[in-house]
Design a protein that fits this description.
Four copies of one chain form a homotetramer. By secondary structure, chain A is an alpha+beta fold. Chain A has a single domain (6-136), classed as Hotdog Thioesterase (Thiol Ester Dehydrase, Chain A), CATH 3.10.129. Helix content of chain A is 20%, strand content 35%. Chain A has helices spanning 25-42, 126-136, and strands at 6-10, 56-65, 75-84, 88-97, 103-115, 120-121. In chain A, strands 1, 2, 3, 4, 5 and 6 form a six-stranded antiparallel β-sheet that branches. In chain A, a hairpin with a 4-residue loop joins β5 and β6. The first copy, chain A, is globular.
Chain lengths: 142, 142, 142, 142
């Protein structure tokens, strides 16, 4: 989970905390979701105003929690596509302290490309594949 | 709700949206809460690591919703203390589009100063009163 | 805020709490929203699967916080329409301890009937007006 | 992920949904968290009013998403301890449609027993081990 070409900063909100005084575990998924969507937007793959055009659904997620995330702590989320399959792709995430890059949590997800209009999984659109391969410098099998 | 000496930027998260595709109404309170806490921190009134030292509790809130808040829209929250009573004070808020200052919602709240250790309301601490009066240029009766 | 013909029970979730150990203030709006939608469903006014058919948008909300809401506390939300205007109506809410009916918070909201297809406010549909008047035993001017 | 001795019902809230009209992915963690805490309470292991006495922290989570969770759908979360280690234990979860038991998602987590006062991991307290082994009919190595 070394280096990322894409990072998105997140402000820890008071409303993200739970009675233990640190980031509630469910918010880690919110942070990863926000980084994932901003990644897709930054590659120009999500141009529509309609959320039903995003075309990816979450099939699986794994999170490893390493250190509590605190209020006032500057945080960034690294996101990277690590595999492009036929109808699915993998992303990994790293939630880090922005000051020193220390990893506070990491995660990975399997995402499935989906056509909301027909309600069916679809192959990764060719322009998505090309844009991601180019950005991540992935080889064909990667 | 004209001008504010304090603004706090907020990123609209995908996780803040609801099925109508815009900011869920409950999140307006989260945004105002975040601005309120950052206001207090910016005045140096909240130095402890313990959230139980904040010492203010929300007694009343009013929100007027003017325009939907959209994903990707840059947003800032203006916050200002408009009244310092004996054991309570008032804050007003404006949720605005950061690009042009257009107001998307506004709100006001009554906040009560509270000692969590004793479980009782307390007069506004003198250094809070002084710091807020100075920052807001409030007169004694203000 | 005396009596309600409609109550909806809500389970306080650990994820609803904040570092002060009780219900975060933004969740009061979530609880009132949930009661409002269940009220509309219970009157048979919301039959579609599409959330864009609900046809009401929140224009204003007021909440008065009376006692903290705690984890494990059984809670119900009373909801009632108190006024039917031309293109808007008012609802009041009471968040109560289900065991003894003690009020923990109350609120009111102004709701505007809206046609999402045309993007315009619309008069309250006659069958909504009739159903609500009948349920609440409101008179024509009420 | 066959059978559970403990189920907790969850009401899907409008505020849990996202622009795709179904349960936002982060809420699955909220639902599992709620089931986990109610499991611990139901075994009498969490008697204090202080959330800092819970004594377990989340080290890892895996979720597999199978079907969207919809508004109005009655949902229950099965929770079960599957392994009791020295300083950690495993729980598995199943989010199911309450009407027919159909699994909508499942998950597992590694939980670490923790002493908030000293800030250190601690062995699973003997009365926790005994209560969980008895409830789950786990053998010593289980």
């Amino acid at each position: 989970m070394s280096s990322f070409r894409f990072y998105h900063p997140i402000e820890v909100r008071y409303g993200d905390l739970d009675p233990q005084g640190h980031l509630n575990n469910a918010r880690y998924l919110t942070y990863m979701e926000q980084a994932r969507i901003q990644y897709i937007r930054s590659l120009g793959l999500w141009r529509s105003d309609s959320f039903l055009d995003i075309g990816i659904i979450l099939a699986e997620i794994i999170i490893t929690f390493k250190s509590p995330v605190l209020f006032g702590q500057p945080v960034r989320v690294g996101a990277r596509v690590t595999r492009l399959g036929n109808k699915s792709f993998d992303m990994v995430y790293s939630i880090e302290d922005s000051r020193d890059g220390r990893e506070l949590a990491n995660g990975s997800s399997v995402l499935v490309t989906y056509d909301y209009a027909s309600g069916q999984t679809i192959p990764i659109p060719p322009h998505w594949r090309a844009a991601i391969q180019s950005f991540e410098q992935l080889t064909e099998g990667g």
